[in-house]
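Our platform keeps sequence and structure together, in a single record for each protein. Such a record has a labelled line for the sequence and another for the backbone structure tokens. The tokens are whole numbers drawn from a learned vocabulary of local backbone shapes. The remainder of this section carries one protein's record, kept here as part of the documentation:
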Amino acid sequence: MSTDIQQRIREQVTTHPVVLYMKGTPQFPQCGFSANAVRILNSLGVKEFLAVDILQDAEIRQGIKDFANWPTIPQLYIKGEFVGGSDIMTEMQQSGELKQLLES
């Protein structure tokens, strides 16, 4: 794993308040989990977030899994912190925890 890609990911997650690594784009998600992640962010009123399409970049596709030590996509980062994937986002949305995290 290249340190360049890790540095690029670190830059993305620290310079944008909300970053979603996903398959496809928010307009055209390429998997149900990515679509769910976008739906959750939209439902919480998140208008702007950096969406990174891992299907367009093989280095990011592998690098992001290593970066968070998390094997699946999508991956959500808020204020530089790894939050989780689609299932965790769903649970946190239902508990209100995700909304709090986004507002803090």
Remarks:
- The domain at 3-97 is CATH 3.40.30.10 (Glutaredoxin).
